[in-house]
Write a structure and sequence with these properties.
The complex is a heterodimer of chains A (520) and B (259). Chain A is an alpha/beta fold and 520 residues long. Chain A has helices at 3-11, 28-34, 55-58, 69-73, 113-119, 141-149, 189-199, 209-215, 220-223, 225-232, 238-261, 264-269, 282-298, 324-328, 344-366, 457-467, and strands spanning 43-49, 65-66, 87-91, 93-94, 125-126, 135-136, 156-159, 176-178, 181-182, 304-308, 335-336, 338-339, 370-371, 374-375, 380-386, 401-404, 415-418, 439-440, 455-456. Chain A has 16 helices and 19 strands. Chain A is globular and about 85 Å long. The chains are: A alpha/beta (520), B mainly beta (259).
Chain lengths: 520, 259
């Protein structure tokens, strides 16, 4: 057995082994130096879709309080009904940097470029007039989170349907590993699969001796018996002896659950093989990427996993012959305003429904694997973020956000929580009021009034970071090696400050998490 | 794609052009973009540049030059508004595909309309638009050096834009006649921009495209200043340099009109 194999294997043990304080023959030194949190891994898994939705069909009627399967059945989210008890719908939230002609709620760069650039960074984009190539001046959530909690230090970012965007076109780029630096991630599953399968064997699908023993049921402690026995012969303090015993107990628990599933059998069960299929078939590509996300979580290869559906995509398998961007504008093209397509609201609904099915599939997969006494899903915050609220209004208040999983008991579930005062009758928006008389004219009127549902998304990002074990510095901003809770994220939490590419200094007016989302 | 004949109208100069074709199988072969006196509207000829399926209507690509620049491939394009209403805050997005139909890269830029319009809703917001029947122009940032012209198979484009009810023309910003002056690396344009509006024009910018006989943009030169031009004020400017002047030019005024 080579050291590299064992290191890879130990990454798969899910935090317990790699955090072990003693075994210099294995990988814990490396892991400790990376500051990866101990214990059962908590993951942030994100599904991102473009162009918003028909908000009034998407949101359940109740914006605050318990949501049951029945509540979801009446909405676009009916596919999520089986998981109602594990869902959390944060309501009343505004994402950052909304476009308008006059810059009322952010920059005037472009309705999509500035939103995608600022969505997970909460930083403005520059240059202010860089309509299609402006870039944010900060890093995005996936990288900020991954550098602290991910075994690899980087997020697994998967672009379903292929890598989109680069330095000359940033209109649908959401992942930024450095300010102004596009992070392309993966556009196909092959490379991801290769990385993952290395975790349970050399050269792809061939298992190494350790993983073979695990698959056959031999416990992790038995496998490392020789190492452990050697270690126990080394003189050490009582405290260290106690720590070693504790670590062995933890290894027994976690190694028997997480790691035993990080194997060829699981990959096969998920329908994954070395030959990634999908190509131009969005359904197959999405399924493959989702399953790779699940496998990556099982193997603890990544704790920050983002999946993104493409922008400007023609969902021909839904019998649509216009692209998703044009359909969201109601008229079928990238123009805004004009004569609506016949039946365009049903076209939008088809796309919304497809995305809801995809999220349900992902959640279902995560909920099908045990992890200790709970399901894998329960140790994640798996969140569906929409780029926009309504796709024609391009508004960012009243954002459709749906989370599955409590992230190890950190979040409440089974309910909607309106973080803007707790009202249960928050408007679902006015998406279906466009195209009255066949024309799309009142762009602002089809969203949600701008003074409603405006609580900053920055605070929810603080929740997510704290839930997965990230830390903040003394100032509350995320900081690798920090000791405090994360209480601030981004440059601004007031969307108006983004105007003109944000000349004001860093200003977080409303720091802290949304405590009302927390279980304890 | 065929066009016949069209007028190229920037804020500064009227250029008459004749019809032409591009992208067809009978095109006489590709050439460099620098032949100012030719009649080619699409260069390189034979490189198909079609509108993204389902996006047709309103705005039409009427000429483009795609050529090797110092930092990578650069594209200059002319876009006509064939619709009945102003097309506002227009952009152009292009996907570049190789000869195996694989997407190589994408790029986008704002299309300059050169005409100011006021949203008549009391907000005082001013937009730049391409009036019906007029032509706007754009110049894309250089592509990655790894993108090679000879590897390209075809291009697809579309035009995000706005049809805004209740916009009214806001005439008054004009670019005077330009004079070409020699520089160390080519030629630049000198001229004046006059703010004939009742409002302040801030961050004024002039963009000049030298064109060939059919109005195909050959290059781009710009001048901008971090200043404010009061109503009635005149800003004398000199642009950056271009390698060739073509047979004419199209000049577009820009800037922010403060409500």
């Amino acid at each position: 057995m080579t050291t590299m194999n064992r290191r890879r294997f130990l990454h798969g043990l899910g935090g317990a082994a790699i955090a072990a304080p003693f075994l210099s023959s294995v990988a814990e030194k490396e892991a400790k130096s990376q500051g990866v949190p101990m214990g059962t891994p908590k993951r942030l898994i994100v599904m991102f879709t473009h162009y918003g939705c028909l908000t009034n069909r998407w949101f359940p009627a109740k914006s605050h309080g318990e949501l049951t399967a029945t509540d979801y059945m009446a909405t676009t989210l009916k596919h999520m009904a089986p998981y109602a008890s594990k869902l959390l719908m944060p309501r009343g939230i505004r994402a950052m940097n909304e476009w308008s002609f006059g810059g009322t709620h952010g920059q005037t760069t472009d309705p999509h470029t500035q939103v995608c650039g600022s969505y997970f960074t909460c930083y403005p984009v520059t240059p202010d007039d860089g309509k299609f190539d402006a870039k944010p001046t900060g890093r995005s959530l996936d990288h900020i989170a991954a550098e602290q909690v991910d075994p690899s230090g980087k997020p697994l970012f998967m672009q379903i349907g292929g890598v989109r965007g680069d330095n000359t076109r940033t209109q649908d780029v959401i992942s930024w590993d450095q300010p102004g630096q596009v992070f392309p991630g993966y556009g196909s599953g092959t490379a991801i699969f290769s990385n993952l399968t290395n975790m349970f064997g050399d050269g792809g699908m061939n298992m190494n001796p350790d993983t073979y023993k695990m698959a056959r049921g031999q416990g992790a402690v038995d496998i490392f018996r020789e190492d452990i026995d050697s270690l126990k012969r080394v003189p050490m303090s009582v405290a260290d002896t106690r720590r070693l015993d504790d670590w062995m107990a933890l290894l027994q628990d976690v190694g028997g659950t997480v790691t035993a599933q990080c194997n060829e059998m699981t990959a096969t069960g998920l329908g994954l093989s070395g030959q990634m299929s999908g190509g131009g078939d969005i359904v197959k590509a999405a399924a493959t990427m989702q399953d790779l996300a699940v496998l990556s979580a099982i193997c603890d290869a990544n704790r920050v996993i983002f999946l993104k559906f493409p922008g400007t995509y023609t969902f021909s398998h839904l019998d649509l012959n216009k692209d998703s961007h044009g359909i969201s504008h109601r008229i079928g093209t990238a123009f805004m305003g004009g004569t609506c397509l016949d039946g365009v609201l049903e076209m939008i609904f088809k796309i919304d429904d497809f995305y809801a099915q995809q999220f349900a599939r992902l959640v279902g997969r995560l909920d099908s694997f045990d992890e200790g006494d709970v399901k894998l899903l329960d140790n994640t915050a798996t969140v569906w973020f929409n780029e926009l609220s309504d796709g024609n209004s391009h508004n960012l208040n009243n954002m459709p956000i749906l989370q599955a999983g409590s992230c190890g008991g950190y979040f409440k579930t089974g309910q909607a929580i309106n973080v803007e005062g707790g009202k249960a009758d928050l408007t679902p928006g006015h998406s279906e009021e466009d195209c009255q008389g066949g024309e799309s004219t009142n762009l602002d009127g089809v969203g949600t009034p701008a003074n409603v549902a405006t609580m900053p998304i920055n605070k929810y990002f603080c929740n997510l970071l704290n839930a997965i074990g990230a830390k903040g510095g003394p100032d509350g901003f995320p900081l690798k090696g920090g000791m405090a809770e994360v209480s601030k994220f981004g440059k601004y939490d007031d969307t108006k400050l983004f105007k003109g590419a944000g000349p004001s200094p860093v200003t977080i007016n409303n720091p802290g998490e949304y405590t009302e989302l927390k279980a304890v | 794609m065929s066009r016949s004949p069209f007028l190229l109208l920037g804020t500064g100069l009227l250029v008459a052009a004749t019809g032409c074709s591009g992208g067809g199988d009978d095109a006489p072969g590709a050439g460099g973009g620098g032949s100012a006196g030719d009649d080619r509207a699409f260069v390189p000829e034979g490189l198909s540049n079609t509108e993204l399926a389902g996006q047709e209507g309103g705005l039409t690509l009427v000429a483009f030059t795609l050529e090797q620049g110092a930092a990578g491939l650069v594209l200059h394009a002319a876009v006509e508004n064939e619709g009945a209403t102003p097309a506002c805050e227009v952009g152009m997005l292009i996907d570049y595909y190789d000869q195996t139909q694989q997407l190589v890269t994408s790029a986008g830029s704002a299309v300059l309309g050169g005409h100011f319009y006021l949203i008549d809703d009391g907000s005082g917001v001013v937009l730049t638009c391409i009036p019906p029947g007029k032509v706007g122009m754009t110049s894309m940032p250089a592509l990655s050096p790894e993108v090679v012209l000879s590897d390209l198979g075809h291009l697809e484009h579309h035009f995000p834009a706005f049809t805004v009810p209740g916009v009214v023309p806001l005439d008054g910003v004009s670019v005077g006649k330009l004079t070409a002056v020699g520089t160390a690396i080519g030629s630049a344009y000198r001229g004046t921009l006059t703010n004939g509006l009742d409002q302040v024009l801030s961050s004024p910018k002039v963009t000049v495209f030298p064109v060939n006989r059919v109005g195909r943009p050959l290059a781009v030169a710009t001048s901008l200043a971090p200043m404010e031009i009061p109503p009635g004020g005149i800003w004398p400017f000199e642009t950056s340099s271009v390698g060739e002047l073509g047979v004419g030019y199209a000049a577009f005024a820009g800037g922010s009109v403060v409500p």
